[in-house]
Design a protein that fits this description.
This protein is mainly alpha-helical. The chain has one domain: Four Helix Bundle (Hemerythrin (Met), subunit A), CATH 1.20.120. Helix content is 76%, strand content 2%. The protein has helices spanning 7-28, 35-60, 66-89, 95-115, 125-142, 146-149, 153-188; strands at 122-123, 197-198. A two-stranded parallel sheet has the order 1-2. The longest helix has 36 residues, at 153-188. The protein is globular. It starts with 6 loop residues before the first helix and ends with a strand.
Length: 200
Amino acid sequence: MAIPRQLPNAITIVRILCAPIFLWMLLADAGHDGPLRWWAAVLFVVAIATDGIDGYLARKYEIVTDLGKLLDPIADKVLTGFAFIGLAILSELPWWVVVVVLVREVGITVHRLLVASTHVVAAAWMGKLKTVAQALALSLALLPLWTVVGEWIHVVNTVTMSIAVILTVASGIDYVITEVRGSRASRRHPADLHTAGGDA
C-alpha cells in the first residue's frame, strides 16, 4: 500500500503547529489542574507520539528525505521547548533547568541549519534516548496526576526530569565531540562530506 511521499513531513509540520496551541491551553488554566490542563497534557502526549509515527512511515516506505531529517528534531525541540517554558511560567519547574535545556537545544538546532548545505546531521542513539526521556518527564509533569494519585507523584516527576536534564546535557556534549571529529576527518579527506551523529 503506497502512501503520499510527503505524509511523514506533513505529520512533522502538524507537530510544530500543535506547540503554540498546547502552550495556550496550558497557560490558560490558571488553576493548574482544570480541564484545559488535562487537554493540554493530552495534546502534548499525542503530538510527541507522532515523532515515532512519522519516522516509522518514512523508514517503512523508504521515503526518508533530507528535509525530514532536518524538520523532525526541530519539531521535537519546538514542542518540548514550549513545554519546558510553560512549566517554568507556572512555577512548576526551575528556570535554570529551562535555560540549560534551551541553550543546548537552540545551539544544536542553529548548528544543524548552518551545516545543512554541506551535510544533514542524522539522529544518534543518545539524542533519541534524550528525546524519549524528555517526552516521558514532560508528560508526567504536565498531567495533573497529583489530583488522582496524590502528592507522591512529584517525587517521580523530579526523578524523571533529572534524568531528562542529565541526558540532554550528555547528548549535547556527545554531539559536539562527534561533530569536531567529523570536521577533522573531512579536512583530512576533503572529498568526503561527513554526516555526524546528532540528536533527535
